[in-house]
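Lab notebook, page 48
Experiment: co-folding of the full assembly
Goal: obtain a model of how the components sit together before planning crosslinking
Operator: M.T.
Materials (sequences as entered):
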Amino acid sequence: VGRHVHPRPGQLTLGMVTDVGGLGDKSFNDSAYNGLLRSRADLDAYIKVLQSKSAADYQPNLTVLSEARFNMIYAIGFLMGDDLQQVAHQFPQQNYAIIDDVVPAPNIISVTFKEEDGSFLAGALAAMVSKTKHVAFIGGMDIPLIRKFEAGYEAGVRQIDPSVKVDVKYAGSFDDVATGKELANLLFNGGADIIYTAAGKVGLGAIDAARTRPQGYYIIGVDNDQDAVAPGKVLTSMVKHVDIAVFDIAKGIQTGHPPHGHVVLGLKDRGISLTDFKYTRSAISSAQLQTLDTLRKAIIAGKITVPYTREALATWKPANL
Amino acid sequence: MSSAGGALIVTLLTLTLIKSTPIIYAALGGVISERSGVVNIGLEGMMIGGAFTAVLFSGMTGSPVIGIIAGIAAGALLGFILGFAATVFKVDQIVAGTGINLVAAGGAAYALTLIYNQPGASPQVSALGNNFWILVAIAFACAALLHGVLYFTPWGLRVRACGENPRAVHDAGLHPLRLRLYAVILSGALAGLGGAFLSIGEVNIYSDGMTAGRGFIALAAVIFGRWTPWGATGAAIFFGFFEALQYVLQGHISWLPADAMQALPYVAALFAIAGLVGKVRAPAADGIPY
Amino acid sequence: MEAREPLAPDAPALELRGIQKAYPGVVAVGGVDLDLRAGEIHALVGENGAGKSTLANVAFGAIKPDAGTVRAAGTVGLVHQHFQLVGRLSVWQNVMLGREPRRGWRIDARAGRERVRALARDNGLEIDPDAFVDELPIGVQQRVELLRELEREPAVLLLDEPTAALAPAEIDSFFKTITQLAARGTAIMIVTHKLHEVLAYSSRVSVMRHGKIVARFETASTSVDEIARAMVGGELPQVAQRSETAPAPRFSVRNLRAGTGSVALNGLNFEVRAGEIVGIAGVEGNGQTTLADAIAGVIPFEGEMQRPPHTGIIPQDRHREGLVLNWSIVDNTVLGRQRLPSARRGILVDRRSARADAEAIAQRFDVRAASLDVAAGTLSGGNQQKIVVGRSLLGDPEFVLAYQPTRGIDVGAAALVQSRLIEARNAGAAILLISFELDEILALADRVLVMYRGAIAGEFSGANIDRGRIGNLMAGSSV
Amino acid sequence: MSYLKRTLGGPAGAILLAFFLAAVAMLVAGVSPLDGFEALFIGSLGGRNQIAETLVQTTALLFPALGITLAFRAGLFNIGAEGQLVIGGLAAGALGAHFAPATPLAIFVLLAAGFVGGGIWGGIAGWLRAQFNANEIISTLMLNFVALAVANYLVSGPLKASNASGAETTPLPASSYLPTLIPDTRLSIAIVIAIGAAIVLRWLLKRTVFGYELRASGEAPDAARRNGVNMPRMTLLALTLSGAIAGLGGATIVTGVLHRFNTQLSPGYGYTAIAVALVGDLNPLWVCVAAFGFGILEAGGLAMQALADVPKDAIHVIEGLIILVLAARRYVATRAEAAPI
Ligand SMILES: Nc1ncnc2c1ncn2[C@@H]1O[C@H](COP(=O)(O)OP(=O)(O)OP(=O)(O)O)[C@@H](O)[C@H]1O
Ligand SMILES: Nc1ncnc2c1ncn2[C@@H]1O[C@H](COP(=O)(O)OP(=O)(O)OP(=O)(O)O)[C@@H](O)[C@H]1O
Ligand SMILES: [Mg+2]
Ligand SMILES: [Mg+2]
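Observation: model returned without errors.
Model output:
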């Protein structure tokens, strides 16, 4: 056990502050961390992660990293905006990036994702693959971010076939794995055969439910590529590439051309994408893949505007392509 | 319609059983501990210990049964720590329980990084699969067994006496501290089993936060069930039922937001305790070091 | 249950040598030698706080002495001054705890019950083995304690004020039991304040004073006076004289109904006038506790009750109902009076007057304590009782409910307490005295109400007070 | 055994043992204990800003711990400080976001809102106990879950700031921030209010008739009831007041630290505060000291991540160990003396 490692002079230094979900959330914190790891591997960066226990920790964590003059400090999570704004104001020379929130400041890069667009494709795929014409959604907590996933998914289903039934359940937690399994079983038993989860680790339980079922029941994973967690049971994963965003920003810093302002990542720049059906290709026809691609292009081209709130979903009509 | 209604009821009851089981185990653990005079606020931590250790050993040996046994042992070990602190050092039991909760949660989370090099959740290990129903049944057997032990055996009588007046137990030539220590170890073992049920009974991984406050709900179930094994079991089923009900109902009552649904078990409990007018009395020496 | 080999009569059963035990500020026991012989009943008497309970606890092994040795020829049993029972277990479970009869892995409940029933029968103690202890009146709990010790057939049995809570009839049968036990070879030491019991039943008497044994008598050749003088180191105080007072109703109940079952009150009517002591005579368990609870406001009742705002209450159970054991004497002095103008300054507790009050109580009642700041729980039983009594009489209360006010108090102090009650009466207080000791009632009361099965079975006053007729009514026979 | 007890009994022994166990935990974590402890103390006491952050944590723990102290002294096991704190914060945040008058009075109104909100939340449990004899351990625990559900619902829906991407209320106007105590830090006058509350609570418990009756109900309920204490009323009052103090704490976090309400307000202050109150012997002034000690752990723990690479989870283990050992010390140290206050 030696004294801890310091960055070498000239080394790219990257700091990250997690939100209260912390590392291991199987969601955006983990994904961001993967981006840091990749930066360490590919860019020889020195990285440091500070986790937060409550909202009150955000500011001290950001301050500590700022005082240490990291080349880039990432604030992960949608509740860190105000704190970041204050800290960024105090350290005008310091560069920051925030994920999932928009903070207008000259030294902050805001990165948001069009989760609803990817969720739309997930919904469309689910509606096409479902044999029972009945699909479902499991959310973690009923908060605006998760409602984006829900709304996009339902719209996607409706785009393919408005008669397909969509059940929605919220686990009330992002950690309660057992409840994820129970909810998935409840939904499967209720007739759904495909479930999209946007619930952190709760989704792991849902995947386990599919694993112990016969062929034909699927989970659609979220945030990270979860296809390999239960090969053949995870139809696809709606990946939100926080890692790529984090890496790209790091790389931009190194090359002297960092992005600035508000970066919105969606299907176009592959900030959002579905994984490529490595284990479930046989369950999907080429026609369905074709449709999926058409929809993706339509969204990119702006021919489809995906709703991201329940209110918008209520009045949303499938696009006529 | 009636067959759909029937199916719904079956679904509801099945889910109730599954939801109740870990709470039953932990609540039975709470009963035995509190009847001996030790408040066990560390049930949550003991569940965590059981859940994690079960995964660890199942993963190492490939045998979920060994995992379950290891989970029980881990709970018992934490029970031993609480019991030892509560008897020999006469530590305030609530503080010690809080300490146990922190150590267990932090320890398990840290061990994930240390052992598996991945925070948040363990890799998948071999689990009970459909055999988890055996553990559901065993929960009820445990309730019956604990009832038998508490009310029909000399040891049970002594434990109950210990929770009421340890001095009388001492005057009878017995060892109240030893009785309490054993009771709390047993308590931890049961809570550990409850945790193991969650991790390798129901699913096949350990994940941080997966106990999700069930240890605290179990504590409430102990009181709700008036410190009796069947009472606590009933109370655990009460919680399990309303949890199941809220999940089943979600989406069917559109004007109720999910958060309101999620509060259902707790609100139901509030109404239920208000309705249970009458003496709900803790063991007289519960929480008081001897 | 195999019987213990009895010791030969007069064989030494318990030897205490040089026992010392000190607490901060007090030497509870300061070098005591004591021998108990098999088959004797040895009375240990002394003022409150003399160190009797401490000595008994040392002999039993519950307290480790600072110095000295204890040698016993067999097991030692102790019946505590403050019982050590498990309230929520039944009588037979309490008695058999630690020695449960078994059938396989189970307790043989029937055998346990039968054992206790037989034990009770053999010793003339009436009891329901299945009753829950915390539902029993104190006197019956005493029997449970005794049964528990009898079950263990100890070579030495120490009894700390066993009769303090017993009714006269119970006391007789209790001593019959004890005498039988002694005859079988058990060495018995009994701590008591009731000197006539000492004379009637013991063979030897040791008198303790300030932690030492100051006198020892063969009972046959001594008298109550001699023992009492040895105890207090001088003459006994005289009980105060009653004086004429002007009667005006202070406390009254009309159609008072409360409680359930055998202790329910079914429509009581009576009043207590200023300057009068009304005694409630009766065998324990006829509703006296229910009446006291209703007056204290801890149980609901029907009917009317007129109770003046300044009421002093002496509860039955000083430990549970009278004192906050962890609090100092000074703090306990305020309890029950905290809302009275005399005990507070605006919203604050008047601590100066509390201390002055505590000093007054200590002085008027001769409270023996290391200081007024020690926790009430560390006081000897009798001194605790003095605090409770003293507090209730502070500041000229208009009405006093006195439930067994001299329970556990030594003869000298009992005379003091009785005097104080009479003085309060003379000063115009209305006093309701509930006691199971007819002697006490006859000594103090201006008027006697006999309570039987929750009703008033008869009333006597002045020259009409007739011990025999009261006794008959108490036993339930109509006159 | 008695030798071990005696060694552990001294405060020095206890602290040594705590540090030893913590050092072992750090070694397991692959961190040099020297680095770890250095980080712990530098991070919590090593400078103006560090001390300020330590006091911010102290304050957040102190309010609920004082509320718990009051309830426990009345013999009521209020384990609902977490929920009361959240509701207090919610009340202040909601009011501050929507109806704040732009005068210094605003601060007072927001704190009062927190006080009342927490009081109502505690009062529900008090009412259930007084009216129906409903066990307060269950009711306060259940109300914690309900509070979080209510808060989550409100900030995700009706009270959500329209332009926020997360679930939180509109930020407070700067005019209703609690004034800071040390410039350029987050330390507000909340710490002064908290210490003031501790002093008032001590006075209330020790000097007043109300406090006298409250302590009597806690120490000896049978004696209290028989000696003129109206127990149902005392129950209601004690739990209401207890909740109100915790709620005030929530309001100070909103007005002094976060300047808005969201559901990540508390990492479980209300639960940790139970240990704080008990380690502080349920004596308001010692509770202040205990809260400061826990504040060092919380703030220093955060710094240990940054300065010594001790992972967050290992810090929890260290905290838990220290709590266990401190509790043992408390017993040995206080057993000889009579009851506190
Ligand atoms: N635990 C204790 N701590 C401090 N002092 C104590 C303790 N127990 C007893 N004492 C003191 O020791 C002395 C002897 O008490 P003890 O109970 O033996 O008296 P006693 O003779 O039984 O009196 P009583 O007739 O009133 O029961 C008293 O002054 C008492 O205050
Ligand atoms: N048990 C009592 N014995 C004598 N006087 C009492 C008693 N209880 C209250 N009082 C008197 O009643 C008056 C009211 O006292 P206080 O305000 O403390 O009572 P309270 O119950 O708190 O009143 P409120 O219900 O208005 O708050 C005081 O003058 C007090 O002396
Ligand atoms: Mg005595
Ligand atoms: Mg008042």
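Interpretation: Chain C touches chain D at residues 296-298, 313, 315, 320-328, 331, 334-336, 338-339, 344, 347-349, 351, 374-375 (CB under 8 Å).
Next step: discuss with group before ordering constructs.
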